[in-house]
Design brief:
This protein has 167 residues and is mainly β. The chain has helices at residues 12-15, 146-149, and strands at 31-33, 37-46, 54-62, 68-69, 71-74, 80-84, 89-94, 107-111, 117-119, 124-125, 129-130, 135-143, 152-155, 161-162. It has one domain (22-162): Jelly Rolls (Sandwich). The chain is built from 2 helices and 14 strands. It has a 6-stranded antiparallel sheet with strand order 1-2-3-12-6-9, with no helix packed on it. Strands 7, 8, 10 and 11 form a 4-stranded antiparallel sheet that branches. A two-stranded antiparallel sheet has the order 4-14. Strand 1 and strand 2 form a beta hairpin.
Length: 167
């Protein structure tokens, strides 16, 4: 005998008994906005065993037409996962140090869509910008509320960095 089961529409209410989900490309929820981005924080919460929870958030980033970086952030106590979903990205990075933002140490990388990054603790980084799209979606994985209790942001003093795309 075959039992037929109707396929339901995925909604937070319908799926709640089983877990949570995040539409990375079309997120909803609490928004934190910046010049080029909107961050939908802590949408999916994952607790690995008896560890601290890891949350997955959606970052929607608009084009930074000149690829200008005016400052960067780092996290002292955690690594950060980033996954560009629907287009390639450009990410400014600098090595972890004693908290000094040194423009000469900054590099920029093209990150292909679908490439999962894990940034080490203390790594300086800016938001990932879309390489050629007008906007794109980035999945972020961080411990819950880390942007509140372990985020250091510094502006470059009198300096702007510009990524040059040659490919």
């Amino acid at each position: 005998m075959t039992r037929q089961i109707e396929v339901k529409k995925l909604t937070p209410e319908a799926f709640n008994p089983y877990g949570s989900y995040l539409d990375v490309v079309r997120p909803t929820g609490y928004e934190m906005k910046g010049t080029y981005h909107t961050f939908y924080r802590d949408v999916v919460r994952f607790v690995p065993g008896n560890q601290d929870p890891v949350c997955f958030s959606s970052l929607i980033v608009r084009k930074n037409p000149e690829f200008i970086c005016t400052g960067m952030e780092y996290h002292d106590h955690t690594e950060e996962i980033q996954l560009p979903i629907d287009a390639d990205g450009v990410l400014f990075c600098a090595p972890a140090n004693d908290g000094a933002l040194i423009p000469e140490e900054v590099e920029a990388f093209r990150i292909p869509a679908g490439t999962l990054l894990c940034l080490r603790r203390g790594t300086w980084h800016d938001v990932m910008y879309p390489h050629s799209a007008d906007a794109f979606s980035v999945l972020i994985g961080l411990p819950e509320r880390i942007y509140h209790n372990d985020l250091v942001w510094k502006d470059f003093e009198g300096t702007k960095l510009q990524a040059v795309i040659t490919e």
